[in-house]
Amino acid sequence: MKVNKLLILPILAGFFVMGFGDIIGTVMIQVKNECASHADTISWLMPIFAYVWFLLISIPTGVLCGRLGRKNAVLVSLAVTIVAMFVPLGASAERWWLYIVAFALIGIGNTIIQAALPALMSNVVDKSQITSRISLGQFVKALCAALTPVFVYLTATLLGNWKLLFPLYGGLTVLAAIWLLVSKIPDERTSAAATEGRASDTSFSSCLAMLRHPYVLAMTVGILFSVGADVGFSVAIPEYLKNVYKVDVNKAGMGPTVYFVAKTVAAFLGAIVFARISAAKCFPWCMGIGILATAAILCVGTPQLFLVCVFVVALMTANSFGMCMGLAIDRVPEKTNEITALMVMAIVGGGLVSALLGVAQKAFGPTGIVLVLLACIGYLFVLGLFANRKA
Question: Are 319 and 266 in contact (CB under 8 A)?
């Protein structure tokens, strides 16, 4: 059965909602300002809610996809997100804990949608195009992340209350949920059009059993290092500018903007390139250039050249997440639920790499940061060679 290509549109709307997960970091300064007496508590609780759900509920989401279907699992995530977006309206300096509840719900909804939405993409996209379409989804997600600070500013200045951002995003989530609900996306549990992706028997054991598949295991570890490098660069850029090039703290804080702009551009280009060229062929070349650009950071002598290197690294490595997931799904399409669940769980690697960055910086200074990032991208380069050879 031929699938309507326009069915990808409500799924892309889901990727926009996925970008709401970045709201936590964006509004943190406003929350801490409002709840000044509890700022320290809020600061240490936030990293927990940024990563713990990926560890705890990624595999249960894979099971949920198998039992309820991928579309229904995404609708569950949207429902959780809708509730989360209205909780902060009751928060205040005295009821600061409502922010924690809201951020926890945002984290849960974001984890579910990150595990279920790429799997749902495979219901409407040919498996040879899955990497390209995941890159397109990542581009939409990146746009949302880029717009969030603008929306925070506009709600604060034009509407007089930055917290109105939450019901705005809640309303957009309602629209995305309705659009997805009425869309006639084939159900992988019954549709002959999605026979390859059927996974009604998804369970905890079937998810963990995929770790015995060498290709899937290698790609899952690739996700860990991909997210680790991503988090590492966003944390390390301002530190490097401040400590090595003695850039003013406020200007150094703007450094990650270069990285995120490059990521957005790369996600858009990836959607175009991977539709025409195999991701397996592009993988080693992208990571190889990424290694060279990262190593060049140790040699350049000005902050401008440093940011050029950062831009190139982001441009080359931004699609590593989509390549790892897309290639694994392409290799074992009948285990899509299990693969996406495992890979989303590997996002917790971002926290592990952040911890390593702290240790390396303490032991070797700024050079230690670059060495950890080189190790992450080095694994991805070897993984790219492996994927190209298997292809």
Answer: yes
| Cβ atoms 117, 8 nearer than 8 A | no
CB 218 within 8 A of CB 386: yes
The pair of structure tokens assigned to 86 is: 């209205």
The percent helix, strand, coil of the chain (3-state, each to 5) is: 85, 0, 15
* Burial degree of 25 (CB within 10 A; 0-12, 13-18, 19+): middle
Q: Which residues of 166-198 are buried (b: 16+ CB within 10 A; e: fewer)?
A: beebbebbeebbeebeebebbbbbeeeebeebb
Burial class (CB in 10 A: 0-12, 13-18, 19+), 215: middle
Residue 2: the pLDDT is 57
Question: For residue 64, what are its two tokens?
Answer: 């949920």
Residue 159 sits at the vertex; the CA angle it makes with 157 and 163, to the nearest 5 degrees, is: 90
**pLDDT per position as a tens digit, 167-176:** 999 999 999 9
